[in-house]
Amino acid sequence: MKIIIIGAQAAGASAAAKAKRRDPNATIRIYEKSDIVSFGACGLPYFIGNHFGDENEMISRTPEQFAKDGIEIKTLHEVIAIDPKLKKITIRDIKSNNCFDDDYDKLLIAVGATPIIPPLENHQLENIFTLRNMYDGLAIKNALTNRQNSNIVVIGGGYIGLEITESLVALNKNVKLIQLDERVLVDAFDPELTQIIEETLKQHCDLHLQERVQGFEGDHKVTHVITNKAKYPADIVIIATGVKPNSELYKDLDLETLSNGAIVIDSYGKTNIADIYAAGDCVALYHRVSQSMTYIPLATGANKLGKVVGDNLAGGNNQFPGTLGTSALRVFDIEAGRTGLTEQQAIQAAIPYKTVIVKDKNHSNYVAGQTSVIAKLIYHAETRVLLGGQLAGGSGAALRTNSLATAIWANMKIDELAMMDFLYAPPFSRPWDILNIAGGIAK
Ligand SMILES: Cc1cc2nc3c(=O)[nH]c(=O)nc-3n(C[C@H](O)[C@H](O)[C@H](O)COP(=O)(O)OP(=O)(O)OC[C@H]3O[C@@H](n4cnc5c(N)ncnc54)[C@H](O)[C@@H]3O)c2cc1C
């Protein structure tokens, strides 16, 4: 069995490791166009914020460690064509610029995603960055070491925009966060939650909502950001306006995709082309609540689907159970987590729903550190089965989302939360946890 994998980060590396464990005799070769493998981009905002100094801490395994396990990784090799009929691929060796072919029994496309750069005038000026890979992180960190670079504009109020804002403020930079929509985290959280996050953001940075960046000014280096409302000085700009699948490689194949190029797969990770599988940020995942294929580019899905597909590449018969899009972030002193559908997503999915909102405290008042927490739960109007939930507040808010994810995964009804045996001890919760209360008062 000869397995070829394109891309050596979360999805590709997980798949390779699992495939080798299932079939130690399989030939497994990964082609990776960068010189870095098994990289955890999730650490980048904290690397930039000086939570740690060694960028190699974001790398799980080196090519040499993979080689010891019998997995060959060819870095600085870009796959430039796939021929599904002949079951071969064409590769360009980036160092020598030579091209050659390789064949496969099974192929995994794990080419990930790339930042979306809106059509902004002069976006190629120096000190304008996106944040995706280690070199982006190193370049931003290097630019930040110049103390004169004090005015930073972050474009985009999604997860990465907010996480990097927190890190930059901690470095004593003046941060302006510009968001096109009327609120931050618009795809992940409902307004009741984003309002709290925005209040916190406003205490630490200059938040501009409903403002459109049009371009940049500067000679070689950026000096100003131009929006539809004003012109702001900027020494560094970070564009964090979402990602799109790296579909260039496969766009001319007859692969079924979503409109953004995300590959549609079945529960085994197979595409509609024989012996070609896909995983990670280049695929659409099955959403367990909306029961539709959805683009949710997260490490959680990339690792899990990668593992399932790795097993199947080597002869297994494993199924990916789907996603709830469970995710969380910290924004200064607020934690926020979400899982399943938001109210907006329930509307889009045409699911009849009800909501319950509870404002409570994270734990007992006589233990230091008591803070407010808000929970919003969405449930089916007729069956009362949980559809989604979000929490925001102080310590303990984000991890409660995992309890909700478990309940949604198990198709539990909102009412079952009322008597759920959640833990109680004064430093962690109150005798009736916020999720107990939500279950108890849901109409
Ligand atoms: C700043 C930041 C913070 C994040 N935080 C979180 C978080 O807290 N939680 C979470 O769940 N997720 C988080 N994510 C998302 C997570 O990092 C991604 O979901 C994950 O990295 C996806 O892995 P992947 O293997 O699918 O793709 P990628 O990491 O994009 O890797 C794909 C690889 O394929 C290679 N490649 C592409 N085309 C070719 C080709 N033609 N030939 C050869 N190689 C090719 C690329 O060079 C790349 O190395 C974060 C992402 C970023 C950028």
From TrEMBL:
Entry keywords, A to Z:
FAD, Flavoprotein, Oxidoreductase, Redox-active center
InterPro entries according to UniProt? FAD-bd_OxRdtase (IPR050260), FAD/NAD-bd_sf (IPR036188), FAD/NAD-binding_dom (IPR023753), FAD/NAD-linked_Rdtase_dimer_sf (IPR016156), Pyr_nucl-diS_OxRdtase_dimer (IPR004099)
How is this protein named in the record?
CoA-disulfide reductase
PANTHER family noted in UniProt = NAD(P)H SULFUR OXIDOREDUCTASE (COA-DEPENDENT) (PTHR43429:SF1), PYRIDINE NUCLEOTIDE-DISULFIDE OXIDOREDUCTASE DOMAIN-CONTAINING (PTHR43429)
Q: Where does the Pyridine nucleotide-disulphide oxidoreductase dimerisation domain start and stop, copy by copy?
A: 331-429
Q: Which GO terms describe its molecular function?
A: oxidoreductase activity
Q: Which cofactor does it need?
A: FAD
Q: Which ranges carry the FAD/NAD(P)-binding domain?
A: 1-294
